[in-house]
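User: I would dearly like some help making sense of a protein record. This is the protein in question:
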Amino acid sequence: MRKKYKNISPYLGAGFIALSLLSIAPAHAQSAAALLEKGMDFYGQGGHLDESLATYNKLINRFSNSQDPEERYNVAQALYNKNIVLVTLQRYKEALSTCNELIKRYGDAQDPEIQRVIAQALYSKGNILCELLNQRQQAQEVFTEIINRFSDTRDPQIQRVVNKAKVYLMVRQ
């Protein structure tokens, strides 16, 4: 005699969908990481700055509303990298705007990796203001913000940015 099993087909659909969603999430995150890497590859190839910029914009547009920590980091890094590409293209005001967008969007993030990107973006903003747009007073304010905001951190990468900001202020005084 066969053993009777409870019909699980109604549950199978829901379970299958849940498993499918779980398997999609890492691929989605990999997609953001893959776009970030692709943008860096284009930048590294020198003559492909427009492709690099387009790739970063694609990543930012596609993942900007994500709450996934890895995707948030990738968007933050893409914004920072976009700033670097814009500086290379001598589009300084757009680069500054990109730094401001990054800082506004992720400035309060507690994720240490995102905080590193914020510190770098603030330093980049200060450099753009001082060296490229000749706005030294605003640059001093940004470098002071870096020191005030990050002096207590123990993160060695952020401390390097703080130290560079201190050197800038000492040299410019």
Summary: Residues 1-27 have pLDDT under 50 and may be disordered. Helices lie at 9-44, 49-63, 69-88, 92-106, 112-132, 136-150, 156-172. The chain has one domain: 29-172.
